[in-house]
Amino acid sequence: MTSLALYEDLLALGETVSLPRGIRMLYAASGEASSLRANEAWFGTEELELKAGGEGATVLRWELIEWEPADAKLAAHVDLDPWEEYVMRCERSGAGAGEMLDLGPAQGIACLLRGELRISGETVRPFGAWVEPAGQGEAASQVTVLVRVSLAVAADLAGRGELLAEERVRL
After folding, report:
1. What CATH number labels 3-65?
2. With the C-alpha atoms ordered 88, 68, 40, 46, is the resulting torsion angle positive or negative?
3. Taking a C-beta distance cutoff of 8 angstroms, is the pair 161, 91 a contact?
4. Minimal CA–CA distance to 21: which of 59, 80, 53, 65?
5. Which fold has domain 79-169?
6. pLDDT (tens digit, 9 = 90+) per residue, 76-133?
7. Exposed/middle/buried for 120, CB within 10 Å: 0-12, 13-18, 19+?
């Protein structure tokens, strides 16, 4: 069973986390970790030593895994055709007060960075996450910013927000 899992790594000043090989996307929500600065994303598959800079860092980490994660912030089963080529992409999107937030149509997980919104009747606050495609969203009550990682068939690729990183993946 393939899952997409979201982890939130809160790294103190100079703290290092070691990550094994795996298909992953990183997004620095704040601070700096290794060469990743705030609001930047990175894709990789190799072992990784992620070291926080002088202010520490909050890093959101999405991993494509073949097991059920026990310690993830949120995880969801993804239906992937082994004969298709997929693109794993990280996008940032936002809406002003009173505007509808563009919820992604592809399989993925989104995390709210700023603001507050309601999705399918549930209130989501900063660093709250949800599985996409999501249910019906309501207009944002304030300026709202999110970051999402999604998996789309390469041939069907259509961006929804500011593209931060993307890479083709095959299982």
Report:
1. 2.60.120.10
2. negative
3. yes
4. 65
5. Jelly Rolls (2.60.120)
6. 999 888 888 888 989 888 766 666 666 656 789 999 999 888 777 788 899 999 898 7
7. exposed
